[in-house]
């Protein structure tokens, strides 16, 4: 009961915070993978956007292509709203992406196509969504032991594949 109340409160606060800060509208013109897009801003300025608080499988990782396809299905060639929080170390814009009022970052976790990125997590709602996707064995959670992308990247570096 208390967990449900907390969850509802967090959903409300997340939705409220999305509407209380300035956002930027853009057209999604590219999908790099399940957590990176290219957007055209006003004046045709192109920006790279990293969906914050989530980490999707790498392109060559199991479910990497499916994750990219899912993100494409949700927002490719669509006008979205970005709630920008800053930049990452690669100079990509960090943002929560909204389409028709839906938090797309959260939708990726709910569908089992991305992890809640614990290292950069600010809203526990992503963990709840991940737990639910795991319990339902959705997407990457159909795999018996999926490897988080940050560990996959370490293996790639170490073994050169």
Automatic annotation (TrEMBL):
PROSITE patterns per the UniProt record, alphabetical: TNASE_3
UniProt keyword list: Endonuclease, Hydrolase, Nuclease, Signal
Gene3D superfamilies to which the protein is assigned, alphabetical: 2.40.50.90
InterPro entries for this protein: SNase_OB-fold_sf (IPR035437), Staphylococal_nuclease_OB-fold (IPR016071)
Alphabetized CDD domains for the sequence: SNc
GO MF annotation terms: endonuclease activity; hydrolase activity
Signal peptide: 1-20
Pfam families: SNase
Entry protein name: Nuclease
Organism: Rodentibacter mrazii
């Amino acid at each position: 009961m208390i967990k449900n109340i907390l969850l509802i409160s967090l959903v409300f606060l997340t939705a409220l915070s999305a509407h209380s800060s300035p956002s930027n509208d853009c057209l999604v013109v590219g999908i790099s993978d399940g957590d990176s897009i290219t957007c055209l801003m006003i004046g045709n300025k192109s920006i790279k956007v990293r969906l914050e608080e989530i980490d999707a499988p790498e392109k060559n990782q199991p479910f990497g292509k499916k994750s990219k396809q899912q993100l494409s299905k949700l927002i490719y060639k669509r006008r979205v709203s970005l709630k920008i929080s800053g930049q990452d170390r690669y100079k990509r814009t960090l943002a929560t992406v909204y389409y028709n009022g839906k938090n797309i970052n959260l939708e990726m976790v709910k569908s089992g196509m991305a992890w809640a990125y614990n290292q950069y997590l600010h809203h526990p709602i992503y963990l709840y969504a991940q737990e639910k996707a795991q319990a339902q064995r959705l997407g990457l959670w159909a795999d018996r032991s999926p490897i988080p992308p940050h560990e996959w990247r370490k293996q790639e570096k170490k073994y050169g594949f």
